[in-house]
Amino acid sequence: MNVDPRGAGPARAGGSRNARRRAREFALQGLYEWLLSAENAGVIEAHIAESPGFGHADREHFRGMLHGAIDEAEALREDFTPYIDRGIATLSPVEHAVLLLGAYEFRHHPEIPYRVVINEAVELTKTFGGTDGYKYVNGVLDRVALRLRPLEAGRR
Question: Are 107 and 79 within 8 A, CB to CB?
Fold first, then answer.
């Protein structure tokens, strides 16, 4: 999967938000690569850091998400497995990677509202996934949010 960060859509006010979106895109690319190759996270990070536009990404957020999602993949899968209707092996690599990223952000970034985590996951899936994959990701992460952030997500 080749992620073109220039295809991220229009820049928004507040460069950090755009930088964080780019970080998510690059983390998605890295997780996609990891899911297909089982390559070492450090090797993947070095490869992605050479990508055009990487300098505009939030490097710290990218690194935390990539390494964290890989290191905690089994625990993160436990967060969303009860809500998927098929085996993990049958998820598309994009859906799988986005679910890992969403679960990681729910667990480790409470400063990011759960609705933002879900929206960003949906946007990533719309951009890089199959036609209706974003609907699936939205439904799964909505249920994960209720489990991992019950006070916040329960106030809808």
Answer: yes
Residue 156's identity, in one-letter code, is R
How many CA atoms, within 13 angstroms, populate the side-chain half-sphere of residue 17?
11
Alpha carbon separation from 125 to 13, 14, 50, 119, 147 (Å, rounded):
23, 23, 23, 10, 22
Give the pLDDT confidence score for residue 131 in this predicted structure.
87
Q: Cα separation of 119 and 130, whole Å?
A: 16
Distance CA(135)–CA(150), nearest Å, equals 21
Angle at alpha carbon of residue 103, lines to 86 and 153, rounded to 5°: 100
Looking up tokens 């609705």 gives: 115
**Domains of the chain, first to last:** 10-153 (1.10.940.10)
State residue 26's pLDDT score.
Answer: 96
Alpha helices in 38-83 (DSSP H): 41-49, 59-71, 73-80
pLDDT at 41 over 90: yes
DSSP structure class, residue 83: G
Q: Is the pTM of this model over 0.85?
A: yes
